[in-house]
Amino acid sequence: DVKVTQSSRYLVKRTGEKVFLECVQDMDHENMFWYRQDPGLGLRLIYFSYDVKMKEKGDIPEGYSVSREKKERFSLILESASTNQTSMYLCASSPSGAAYEQYFGPGTRLTVT
Amino acid sequence: KQEVTQIPAALSVPEGENLVLNCSFTDSAIYNLQWFRQDPGKGLTSLLLIQSSQREQTSGRLNASLDKSSGRSTLYIAASQPGDSATYLCAVNSGNTPLVFGKGTRLSVIA
Fold it and tell me: I need a labelling partner for B63 at 20 to 30 A (CA). Which of A17, A62, A105, B107 fits?
């Protein structure tokens, strides 16, 4: 079974703090993705990566950065957390190729106060 | 730009009923379509993946169909149970771009 794990299920941070969200997959997938999910807005893509040390901006990259130093790990970084970044963050991975199936982690509910 | 729509946004049915969830997409040039389930506060669980060359896929009480030319997919749930209550999302893979998701249908199955 494909396993995608996220470092925390719940996280509470203060405004201005630097926040790291970690995602690890155990299936040697090339592609990894970070989304945020908010009521009424659905899933929105923040950043994705098709290989180690590669990153691509998604639909809403402002206020975020990412790091992919190893194939299995994809980190999302909030440089200076703000209250409008309170959200559910979801990580996903998939193999390379056009006909891929995507697998999600359990999510991190981040609250910025 | 690919857009994915799911109607209705919410659905409530009595236990035992058969039901259909709808997903439509604007660009028929897709590689596959994936249906997911999401329980409140949790991540997404993949239910079914239909490749563009397929018409349908089945898993237990679930059956997903795909009509690429008309830009539609349906998820059929037979003999619904309260445990089926969740949000169901469809996502379209158009090739070398990330999946495009619908906003989901929130299903409530009433005992």
Answer: A105
